[in-house]
Amino acid sequence: MELRKVPARKDGRVIVHFDYDCFYAAVFEAKTPSLKSLPFAVQQKQIIVTCNYEARRRGLHKLQLIRDARRICPDVIIELGEDISRFRDASKELYNFIKDYSWSGQVERLGFDEVWMDVTDMVEYNIGIINRNNLEHSFFQMVKDDPTIGFEFDATAIAGHACPKDFAQGPGPGNAEDELSLQLRLGSHVALYMRHQLEQQKGYTSTVGIATNKVLAKLVGNMNKPKGQTVLMPSNYAEGLESSVMSFMDAHEIGKVPGIGFKLAQRLREFILQRETKYDWTDAGTKEPVTVAQVRQHPDVNYEMLEKLLAGPGSAHGIGYKIWSLLHGVDDSEVSQARAVPRQISIEDSYVRLDTLPELLKELNALARSLINRMRIDLLSNDEDFEESKDESDNDTVKPRTSLVGMKWLAHPRTLRLTTRPRQPLQPDGSRPRTMKRISHSCPLPNFVFLLSESVEILAEKLVRDSLVTMFRKLHPEKSWWNLSLVNLAVTNMAETASDSKSAIGRDIGNMFKRQENVLKDFRVVEEETETTITPEPSSGEDVTAENAVELVAIEADEDEDGWVDEDGMDAATDYCHICDSAIPSFAMVAHQRFHEPAVS
Ligand code: DGT
Ligand code: MG
To answer: Which top-level group of life is the source organism from (predicted)?
Structure first.
């Protein structure tokens, strides 16, 4: 039947998916390697957000209450991970490390600890120069214009694990039907090489999947965790990938398929089982699993029916066909190109109670400091011309000489946004209205924040005094009563300065600063351009109490980290809570559910 037509599989690409093992714990371990052999966990609020494998061996797990972890493993070493900037920095460093190997620049981050890389061009090039009569002694060239950089490998063998285990070995070298297997074998070797480099040079181990598209690569990696890699191979070379992909996909619970979020999975389960189903939050899963096979093979399921079943407000057009394709392991989405700068930088914190002006000013100052620091980390780059031009400049008196001299802005965000989430006042009957809305106010970002001559502290204070207090008053004209559960500060609307020619900048320090002033002229504050928006957040099942705020705070630290993640992630990154309907990153769903549970005594 036409509506059940199997979407065409476009093989020919080789995609590698990296997932760093125990990421937050690994960030500490990279600095202090002695932690690796000890049970070690990272704490945010009252939970262990992650722990290393030694701790997992001793019975600890992700998202466990600190109390329970200490009881189970009294000698566990715990570090505080409230300050997520260290994870963000590590994530960026590792991303750049991986990106430097790429020829095409198609390297995409998902969250802090996952990266896809499209290695098709590297694999194709190396297949082009391979000696098919001596595949055992091959050399993989890692740098296109330097045949000496790379590694030796056996192109008849797979590096790491293969799925399925009885994959087709292929009819032998030189046979066209075996090209796909050859591609994937090379993909597995380049993945192994990069995984080793990541470990040797940066101290991080990772779990890697290699396949012909993003979804398959992400899924197949899970088969050998941690420190493992798996390549999805054809089980029958004549059929290509068809049979192995179908049996691989069919075995998965539908909620595990990236791109099928919590809500969609739940609707599919209910359709297949023809009744309401329950979700078990403690296990981050369902006690009523429905497999891909059950959905795919159901006689009434086709893409038009899926469109009707799944389309809703906010869902992308063509969701039915997209899900139908995913059920068949078909995913044509591209690995996006690496971007030099994030689309936005946002910093936020949440509060059990924030209702006095002195407290607010203190928090705004702290957020503004983080924001400016973050801008300097993410948006400044070395001016390579500076070192050589330094001697040419006899104007050594040009000030200031700080460690930031020689840096230039890669982009200037144009807009400053302040967002709050006010708690509603109690109603006469003592109840609290359920809606928790975020409200925000935007205005042009004042120029002075780009000045490198001033300290972050001074700039932050000025930003609070000159802009943020006024913006806050626009959001909260009522002087007498407000109580905030969240404050978010963001710079958005990036204007990249990539067109700067090298010769135009950094000739000497004076010129550079003069030029910077010129650039900044474009960023005048224009009061009329300000804008206030109210973003309704779907109603929350209950308000935050001091006790249950704990986990929520932990989640939100990650939920809205910065533009690198917010806007680059695929649908898989977000699920919707069935109680409050909030969008929650998939990995944080379990912790989020604790927020809805009765307060822990
Ligand atoms: P893995 O991949 O099983 O070896 O372990 P991780 O620690 O890499 O876990 P993963 O990949 O699920 O998440 C990456 C990091 O994100 C993790 O190290 C800590 C953080 N994270 C994960 N889930 C949550 C959560 O529910 N709340 C918060 N605040 N952070 C989380
Ligand atoms: Mg991980």
So the answer is: Eukaryota
